[in-house]
Amino acid sequence: MSDQRSDQNYENLFRPLNIGHTTLKNRVVMGSMHTGLEEVKNGTKRIAAYYEARARGGVGLIITGGISPNLAGRVAPFSSQLSGKKHLKDHKFITQKVHQAGGKIVMQILHSGRYGYHPFAVGPSRIKSPISPFSPWPLTGRGVRKTIKDFIKCAELAKESGYDGVEVMGSEGYLINQFLVTRTNKRKDEWGGSYENRMRLPIEIVKGIREACGENFIIVYRLSMLDLVDQGSSWEEVVRLGKEIEKAGASIINTGIGWHEARIPTIATMVPRAAYSWVTKRIKSEVNIPLIAVNRINTPEVAENILKEGHSDLVSLARPMLADPDFVIKAKEGKADEINTCIGCNQACLDHVFKNKVASCLVNPYACFETELVLKKVKNPKKVAVVGAGPSGLSFSVEAAKRGHEVTLFDRGDEIGGQFNFAKVVPGKEEFHETIRYFNVMLKKHGVNLKLNTEVSTQELESGFDEIVIAAGVRPRKLTIEGFERENVLSYMEAINNPSKVGKSVAVIGAGGIGFDVSELLSHREVKGRDEVESYTNEWGIDQSYDENRGGLSRDKKLDFSMEREIYLLQRKTTPHGKGLGKTTGWVHRANLKKRGVKFIGGVEYQKIDDKGLHIQKGGESQVLEVDTVVVCAGQLSNNDLYAKLEALGKENIHIIGGAKEVTEVDAKKAIRNGVELALKI
Ligand code: NAP
Ligand code: SF4
Predict the structure, then answer these.
(1) Cα 636 to averaged position of ligand 1 atoms, centre (Å)
(2) Which domains does the chain have, with CATH numbers?
């Protein structure tokens, strides 16, 4: 697969696009992503370095994270705003860096409306959103006029800062979207009621920006093509607005999918690649300006295919640009198999942003840390042994080898990947194959001496190596309850490697990330004869014909999820299941299992396992779950014995990283970062 990828020339992807006053060098747009860098020390330098790296990597057009045109429009109390000259210096610094690197950059203007997480939030009407505790203040007619002026002023300041244009954020449920639909707009004045009135706000904004900023300025409008909420826009309204936005002077229309409050996953890893390009294609014949397709476009061949099939003129990649700043250049130079692919996990990007932490990337810890994590070649290369080819051992080996060290990587297994090899077989987590492919290619490229099927001894390690890195990972925790040694009690590794060993009724002990993954795997049922996108849209109630309900929702949500297995997912805690899962994806995992009828039982005590099944106590009462199989997902223990042995031998220059060092809260994100950090120090 990797070779095929590199052999392609991606002719559509690299065809320049003339947009009137200027030409984009290729069809790849870096989509807008908030990074949280604006709010940290040295923020401007760090943002500039982050965008500069992507511009150098060859992306055709960068769209910045959202910047508010006024105080009320901020997403959170300290989010960025551009409404006066005092911030021009910072923005000029950013645009200069991008232009020097050969890139083009437009600034996204985002007014959060009722999504504003602060008491000054405004909206068309006083209707609170389900995702913010603050009820918005309804804008007066004067307030609406003033907001339009603020958008225009913001665009003028962006132009003065050197941006090549702006993107007007009209989707994802933010202010403009709130004006467009009766779900949130109950106004009786010229901004509410008929669709003509409701769509007046974005039209006036785009018209005003075009008049103020002139022809030589890019205006991208992010059009909500699929709201995925009740009382969202109808398809006729979407098309009508698209045509009006074109008339108002926009240069490009970007696609917006789903309000933030929608309960349908739109970018999580279980969403099939390119699952939404069909929406963009639907509007293609209705407008004459270029269109951008979005969401889950993470490889050059997926991007090329969208363009080749005529779904859009450009493709937007947001998270994949965090995962690999050189995505474009690698595809162009026939090195697509070297691309570090975004796996759609959200763990280090969106989950961080929602916790007010700086965004980064699980597979690429350098993202947004370009000025903090700097890789330099070493003057005196060392011989380094690494034990364990899981996430931490792999990231360490590749980065240390890039610096010039001579690295030998040992693993007792017959393939690299460690715990990733369990994740990759879970339905919806197939993207982990890409990370393993990436590391395989990188080990080879940087000359790491890989020794699989090798149980390395302390003697071998002691002689011949200047530094030893133990990255031996984890092993499943064993329980002490009676009956644990029975044949029908499996570790999660055994169950994942061999699901056919699991009976028709099963109790899963432990509802952490792995308990959820195992339940997903065991509850999954293939529906034959449907393609991936069709299965996904059916499963989540999306209406591809878009002619029944508003917002693209399907009326028929009665789908058949009857399971082949009866599954109990158990935990001792009394908190809701999956509380510790990712902030932006935990609800998807919960909803998925609930739909399939997995029974969540919390607050249990495990008593014993016998011929009858698993005996538990809950609320002081004993009960037996009559199951064929028990799968234990009760966390892990560190594989640190080798480290302890070497330490006892008085060996110096030994290091321990990843799960081998610390199991609590160590996941792939921390393990990979651990590996990179040590490699930059050693
Ligand atoms: P985990 O998240 O720590 O969950 C293990 C669960 O087992 C605990 O929630 C605990 O729940 C239970 N447990 C612990 N000790 C037990 C004992 N002695 N007896 C019975 N139950 C016990 O660990 P994990 O699921 O193995 O995951 C390992 C790491 O990988 C974690 O950092 C996790 O976040 C990460 N991961 C993440 C994802 C993801 O999708 N984001 C997926 C897989 C793994 P109770 O104490 O309440 O019973
Ligand atoms: Fe993609 Fe995960 Fe990285 Fe986010 S953290 S950019 S979803 S790989």
Answers:
(1) 8
(2) 17-354 (3.20.20.70), 383-476+639-679 (3.40.50.720), 489-525+561-634 (3.50.50.60)
